[in-house]
Write a structure and sequence with these properties.
Rossmann fold; alpha/beta
Amino acid sequence: MPFRRDSDSTASMRGLNRREVIRLGALGAGGLMIRPISATGSMTHRTEATMLDFHDRPMDVVRIGFVGVGLQGTSHVENFLKIDGVEIVAICDIVDDRVARAQQLVVDTGQKKPKGYRRGPRDFERLCDRSDLDLVFCSTPWEWHVPVCAAAMENGKHAATEVPMALTVEDCWRLVEISERTRRHCVMMENCNTSSPRPYSRDYLIQGTRGLARKYPEPRIYIEGRSDPHRWDPVEEYLEEYDHPVWRRLEAASAGAGHGGMDFIEDFRLVESLSKGRPVDMDVYDGAMMSAVVELSGRSIEKGGEPLAFPDFTRGGWKSARPLEIMRNERA
C-alpha cells in the first residue's frame, strides 16, 4: 500500500511527550511489517542523485559547530577534542553556562576559543550561516533535530544529530530530500551500530560463519561446527580471530567514553570518513529508516497492531549491492 505524505502525521505526534513516544515505539514495533515500497503520490520524484555511497572531498581539518551542549553534547565535545584533525569553532546553546563550559573545554586543549551563540532557541541559524564550518553537530531536544539539520545542509554544511533523526515520516523525507539536493551528509549518531559485544548487545552474527556472539546476560559465543552442540563458549576464546579491526584499533582510545566507548567510536568514524573523503557509516537513508519507526509504531498501535507499509527512502537504491566501508576498513 502506498504511504501517504501529509501534515496529519506531524500534527498527530505534536501532542506526544518524550515518555509517550518511547512507549509507543516500544509497544508498536512488533506490529510493523517492514518492507520496501515504491514511492507514490507526492513522492514520485527524486530531488537529485542518490546519497548512497556519496563521499565529499577529503578534509585536512574537520571544522565543527555544536548545537546543544548539555550532558550528551558536552560528552561529544570531549570526544572530538581527542581526535586528530578536528577544530571546534562554534558552540550554540540556550544556556549561557553550558556555552562557557564547552568553550573552556576547547581552550584547555590548546585550541582557539570557539564563538558562542546564545541568543535564544533559533540562534543555531547564525551558527549554520558561518563560512568556516564543515559539520554541524546537533545534541538538542528531539523537536529541534530536523530544524538544525535542515539549516546546516541548506547552508552547505554536513549535519550529524543525536537520535532520532526525526519524529515523523514527513520529516524523514524532508531530510532525505534536502540531503540529496544539497549533496550534504545527514548522519544519525546511533552509537549501538558501532558496538562490539558490550553491555547493550544482544546477538551478533559472526562474519564468515554460522555463529552468534552475545554480551547479555553474559559474554558468550557459539559457532556451528566449532562449538560443542548446545553449549555457549566464552567470547574471549574467539576475540583474536573475529574482533573487528575498528574495535581493536580504538579500544584504548574509547575507554571511559559514553555508553561503554561506543560514543567515541561513532565520533571517530564520522571524522575519519569526512577527513578521508569516504562514505559515512550511517547515511541519511539509514537514519530515516530507523527514525520512521517512531510514527509508524504509533499508527500501528492506533489500528490495533495492524501491519503498515514501510517507506523506501532509497527509492529502490537498496537493491543494488554495494560494499560497506566499515567492512573494508584497514587494520591499524
